[in-house]
């Protein structure tokens, strides 16, 4: 092949006809040698095209180089040769290279087919056209049909023609057709020209080209289509579920999405079933709110006379006195919607949320007027402003002030606020025109407590021995919430005791639990600790019994309750609203009685830390006597606590000295009284050791030396006193002295 192209190039350049004829003869001999060796024209052609190791193969690199060197000359010679009647082998070789380089160009293939037909190589046209990967076109198909006709395969050519025209095709004899094709193939093998191999194509045109793309339609089975649809639905459903769970997680755990707007907390008239009759023990506050109810029921009456109702009502008082219940009862009596929000629900960590919720709350109220807006714990957003505060910290309060100024009294919107610390509110909030009506809801007196107890006892089954007046007398200082808790705990305790009704003992148990704390029956106590507690509480009780101007003794116990190992409790006979100096000093003596008792029995070196709470109470009382009540002669009638830091050091030192002096004098009085009442003191202590808990009547019997009509009882597990406890050696002396 190398010699062939060398001769072809020389022949083109020199245009020597004799040498061209000689090369043609040589080419013919080489072709016949290859065909005779491999018995197949296609295999022989492939060997030539694929660079077989025979002596006729040629390296494509050298061929390409030579082609590039003589490209221009070959092109000129090709044009000259094409003008001749029969194409030369050199021209066929050049066209073959061009066709192999442009397998995807049907125009180049058609030109090559024409040249082959003109040279008499119809069988090679058929073989090349039927080879996959070579571009086709209607022109190429026509040349293919012409080649079929030239080799005698008229039936096939006619069938293709009929198929193109849409007519039925003729039946072809497979045997004859195969024999004819085989014969033509052998004939073609004898006349097969030697073709050179072009560079390998870089694309496969059987899948279409850029100029002539192939349209492909894929068909799938029904099962595959159904499976794809099901898989798509399942995947989409899973993604939607995960998305929903993610959004739910964000909304539940992030304040950025949660509570961005105020929920409609309005209570319809049918649901606001709390009336003034359900609120007891706050008659004065109820009277203050009745005028608001009257205005909401008949606003025209006030408008006719030009009267204006306060925009805001501020309810103040200790916790548990019924401020929220009063506001609900006001809405229930007036038959209007009730919007409730706590002050802590407005502000969040994000700036502007509180102001937005204030606007939303008033917007909802205006849309459903007449209505009542109740803001509990108003001090959470209405505290005094400080010039050093950041601007965002005051946005909620500023928005509330704007909203209070933004509606008229005749719009039928009443704002009620509640707080336990009215002194902490900003003055701009409590000025006239805003929260200008102050209603104090204080602790109920004895009649109020009795009314509250009756109200709550309607809900339980009580026995006839329950005396409401006695319970009210013994619950001085109780709020309405504490009284409600007392009734509920008594009912629960009665159920635990399998009682058919709540009796007085259940009430006393519940009251003791609230006053003294929960019992610690499982606590393990050393014997010395238990006896020291008994003498400590006996000291308090003796001081309460034999000191003038003290409150009546209620109960003493050495059963651990709350944080204390023992408790001595006093209850006033009636509600007290003031205190005298004599009563203050008497309270000091009662507080010091426990410490003095331990010193009398065990000595100063063995007093316990149980005196700490007593000393705190005594110190507080003594400081009030000196600095607040003006009851000290040396300090004088002055009040020092309001501006303590402004007083001189001399005045402060004097006040401190007088406080200490009062405490020392009280301690000495307590010690002296216990020594004078040594017999009563020791009897009471021993009775507490035996019976654990004694009321006032039982203590009176014990002091007189009488025996109680009930068995001795020990609730806690008592263990021996450790040897390291110095009080162990004193126990024998105590027992012997009794």
TrEMBL record:
Entry's localization field? Membrane; Mitochondrion
Q: Which co-factors does it depend on?
A: Zn(2+)
What Pfam family is a match for this entry? Peptidase_M41
Q: Provide one Gene Ontology cellular component.
A: mitochondrial inner membrane
Task: Please classify the protein's predominant subcellular localization into one broad category.
Answer: membrane
Report whether Cell membrane shows up as a keyword of the record.
no
**Gene3D superfamilies in alphabetical order:** 1.10.8.60, P-loop containing nucleotide triphosphate hydrolases (3.40.50.300), Peptidase M41 (1.20.58.760)
Per UniProt, what is one GO molecular function of this protein? ATP-dependent peptidase activity
Alphabetized InterPro entries for the sequence: AAA+_ATPase, AAA_lid_3, ATPase_AAA_core, ATPase_AAA_CS, FtsH, P-loop_NTPase, Peptidase_M41, Peptidase_M41-like
Keyword annotations for this protein, in alphabetical order, are:
ATP-binding, Hydrolase, Membrane, Metal-binding, Metalloprotease, Mitochondrion, Nucleotide-binding, Protease, Zinc
Q: A GO biological process this protein is involved in?
A: mitochondrial protein quality control
* Record domain AAA+ ATPase: where: 309-445
Give the region (Disordered) as residue ranges: 714-738
For this chain, the family text in UniProt reads: In the C-terminal section; belongs to the peptidase M41 family.
Which protein is depicted? Mitochondrial inner membrane i-AAA protease supercomplex subunit YME1
């Amino acid at each position: 092949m190398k010699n062939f192209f060398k001769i072809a190039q020389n022949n083109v350049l020199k245009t020597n006809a004799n040498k061209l004829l000689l090369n043609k003869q040589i080419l013919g001999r080489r072709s016949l040698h290859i065909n005779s060796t491999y018995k197949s024209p296609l295999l022989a052609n492939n060997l030539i095209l694929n660079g077989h190791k025979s002596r006729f193969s040629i390296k494509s690199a050298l061929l390409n180089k030579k082609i590039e060197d003589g490209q221009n000359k070959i092109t000129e010679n090709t044009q000259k040769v094409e003008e001749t009647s029969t194409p030369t082998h050199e021209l066929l070789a050049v066209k073959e290279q061009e066709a192999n380089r442009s397998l995807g160009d049907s125009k180049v293939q058609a030109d090559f087919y024409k040249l082959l037909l003109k040279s008499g190589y119809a069988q090679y046209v058929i073989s090349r056209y039927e080879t996959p990967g070579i571009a086709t076109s209607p022109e190429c198909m026509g040349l293919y049909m012409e080649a079929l006709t030239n080799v005698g395969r008229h039936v096939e050519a006619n069938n293709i023609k009929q198929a193109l025209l849409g007519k039925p095709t003729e039946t072809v004899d497979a045997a004859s057709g195969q024999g004819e094709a085989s014969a033509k193939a052998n004939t073609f093998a004898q006349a097969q020209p030697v073709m050179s191999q072009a560079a390998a194509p870089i694309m496969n045109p059987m899948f279409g080209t850029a100029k002539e793309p192939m349209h492909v339609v894929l068909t799938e089975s029904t099962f595959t289509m159904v499976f794809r649809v099901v898989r798509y639905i399942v995947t989409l459903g899973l993604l939607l579920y995960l998305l929903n769970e993610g959004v739910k997680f964000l909304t539940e755990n992030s304040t950025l999405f949660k509570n961005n707007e105020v929920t409609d907390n309005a209570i319809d008239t049918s649901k606001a079933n709390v009336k003034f009759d359900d609120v007891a023990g706050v008659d004065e506050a109820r009277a203050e709110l009745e005028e608001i109810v009257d205005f909401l029921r008949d606003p025209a009456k006030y408008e006719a006379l030009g009267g204006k109702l306060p925009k805001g009502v501020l309810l103040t008082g200790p916790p548990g006195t019924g401020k929220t219940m009063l506001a609900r009862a006001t809405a229930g009596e007036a038959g209007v919607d009730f919007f409730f929000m706590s002050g802590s629900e407005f502000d969040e960590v994000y700036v502007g949320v509180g102001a937005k919720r204030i606007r939303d709350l008033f917007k909802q109220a205006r849309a459903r007027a007449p209505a009542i807006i109740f803001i509990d714990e108003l001090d959470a957003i209405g505290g005094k402003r400080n010039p050093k505060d950041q601007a965002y910290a005051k946005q909620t309060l500023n928005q509330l002030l704007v909203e209070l100024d933004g509606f008229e009294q005749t719009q039928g919107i009443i704002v009620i606020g509640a707080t336990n610390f009215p002194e902490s509110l900003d003055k701009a909030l409590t000025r006239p025109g805003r929260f200008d009506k102050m209603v104090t809801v204080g602790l109920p007196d004895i009649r109020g407590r009795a009314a509250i107890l009756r109200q709550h006892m309607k809900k339980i089954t009580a026995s006839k021995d329950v005396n409401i007046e006695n319970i009210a007398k013994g619950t001085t200082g109780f709020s309405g919430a504490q009284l409600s808790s007392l009734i509920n705990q008594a009912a629960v305790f009665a159920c635990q005791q399998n009682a058919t009704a709540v009796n007085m003992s259940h009430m006393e148990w519940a009251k003791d639990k609230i006053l003294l704390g929960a019992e610690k029956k499982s606590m393990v106590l050393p014997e010395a600790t238990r006896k020291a507690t008994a003498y400590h509480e006996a000291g308090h009780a003796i001081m309460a019994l034999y000191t003038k101007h003290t409150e009546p003794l209620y109960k003493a116990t050495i059963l651990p309750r709350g944080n204390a190992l023992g408790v001595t409790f006093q209850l006033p006979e009636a509600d007290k609203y003031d205190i005298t100096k004599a009563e203050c000093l008497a309270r000091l003596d009662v507080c010091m009685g426990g410490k003095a008792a331990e010193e009398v029995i065990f000595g100063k070196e063995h007093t316990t830390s149980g005196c700490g709470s007593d000393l705190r109470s005594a110190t507080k009382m003594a400081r009030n006597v000196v600095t607040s009540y003006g009851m000290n002669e040396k300090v004088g009638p002055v009040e020092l606590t309001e501006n303590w830091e402004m007083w001189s050091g001399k005045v402060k030192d004097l006040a401190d000295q007088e406080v200490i002096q009062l405490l020392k004098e009280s301690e000495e009085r307590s010690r002296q009284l216990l020594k004078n009442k040594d017999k009563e003191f020791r009897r009471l202590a021993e009775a507490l050791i035996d019976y654990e808990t004694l009321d006032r009547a039982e203590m009176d019997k014990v002091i007189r030396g009488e025996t109680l009509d009930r068995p001795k009882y020990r609730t806690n597990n008592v263990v021996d006193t450790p040897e390291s406890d110095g009080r162990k050696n004193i126990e024998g002396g105590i027992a012997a002295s009794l």
